[in-house]
Automatic annotation (TrEMBL):
The keyword Transferase applies. Pfam families: Acetyltransf_1. It comes from Streptomyces chattanoogensis. InterPro entries: Acyl_CoA_acyltransferase, Bact_Acetyltransf, GNAT_dom. This is N-acetyltransferase domain-containing protein. Keywords: Acyltransferase, Transferase. One of its GO terms (molecular function) is acyltransferase activity, transferring groups other than amino-acyl groups. Residues 298-321 are annotated as: Disordered. Gene3D superfamilies: 3.40.630.30. SUPFAM superfamilies: Acyl-CoA N-acyltransferases (Nat) (SSF55729). Residues 3-164 form the N-acetyltransferase domain. PROSITE patterns: GNAT (PS51186). CDD domains: NAT_SF (cd04301).
């Protein structure tokens, strides 16, 4: 093997290079997560060529054997509370695994990770699969195990989505930007997700404010994603008591992705979580009846898969600098 690793500038890559990256991603993911949807080529490449992902600034690397692409890697550098973390993904073609390709890719990434002041490297792998064994061999440790769920909307019973809000609450919905009269209370509702379990992961839930909500909305627009929100508003106070969020990826309208759902502690037990999710399903199936076929649950913002795998292990490795 004549292995070479180095940075990859997707925005300047040739059509053949982009196709090779896409093909490797599809085949390696299918080996580990055979139930995953296959993203359309145009949608995948559109996202790959953007310097900013939904988590933060992104850098890419490749491994080649005699010029043939056999491995890829990405590192995302989140801002704010999680700026000390680098979130990585390493993929190696199945026929070239256990030959040191992933380790060489990680070594190629380390100078950039160090230069950005990151102290923790985080990533995810399927439990019991090659990726988990590789990370443990390198000294990563499992910090949390999570399940991902995939709902085929076309086979679901729509009667399950006929759930009205509790008395004293009404349903509000919007696309991308929260209404000005709700953005303050929406920020407070977003903070309600902070009591969700993160195991031993170093991930810090954001401290949401109205300003931060607007920053997040602007970043999502930059990535090209469309985000839909459904909220339960308490009519007495005119404040958001619960919400759910769905992401639609450009050129990938057959699938959508579940983002956060949260209910403020003082309003839990009233069925508001079910009510906002049911309203979201009615909205999606009415508005996009011929396009949306599946809904996938995402992990928290720091550890989201684009997949419906049965179980994922989120691993972290610390670096002494």
């Amino acid at each position: 093997m004549s292995l070479e690793t180095g940075p990859f500038a997707a925005e300047r890559a040739s059509a053949d290079e982009l196709r090779a990256w896409y093909d490797l991603s599809v085949t390696s993911t299918a080996a580990d997560y055979p139930s995953n949807p296959v993203p359309p080529y145009d949608s995948y490449v559109h996202q790959l060529c953007r310097p900013t992902s939904y988590l933060g600034f992104q850098r890419l690397w490749v491994a080649r054997d005699n010029g043939r692409l056999i491995g890829t890697a990405s590192a995302v550098f989140p801002p704010d509370e999680n700026s000390a973390r680098a979130i990585i993904a390493v993929r190696v073609s199945t026929r070239n695994r256990r030959r040191g390709v992933g380790t060489r890719l990680l070594q190629a990434m380390l100078p950039e990770i160090h230069a950005r002041g990151c102290r923790v490297i985080a990533g995810q792998a399927k439990a019991g699969a090659d990726g988990e064994k590789w990370t443990h061999a390198l000294g990563f440790r499992t910090v949390v195990q999570r399940a991902s769920h995939h709902l085929d909307i076309k086979s679901a019973d729509p009667a399950r989505w006929q759930v009205p809000p509790a008395p004293g609450f009404r349903i509000e919905q919007w696309v991308d930007s929260a209404p000005d009269n709700l953005v303050q209370s929406f920020a407070r509702a977003r903070n309600a997700i902070a009591d969700s379990p993160t195991g031993e992961a170093s991930y810090q839930h954001p401290d949401w404010t109205a300003e931060r909500v607007r920053q997040y909305e602007a970043r999502m627009r930059e990535t090209g994603e469309t985000h839909r929100y459904v909220a339960a508003v308490e009519e007495r106070s005119e404040a958001v008591a619960a919400f759910t969020e769905i992401a639609l990826v450009p050129r990938q309208q057959s699938h959508c992705y579940q983002e956060d759902t949260a209910v403020l502690p003082e309003f839990r037990g009233l069925g508001l979580g079910r009510a906002v999710k049911a309203s979201m399903m009615r909205w999606l199936t009415t508005d996009l009846p011929s396009e949306v076929s599946a809904l996938e649950a995402r992990l928290p913002a720091s550890e989201r898969p684009r997949a419906g795998a049965p179980e994922r292990v989120v691993s972290e490795g610390s670096m002494d600098r």
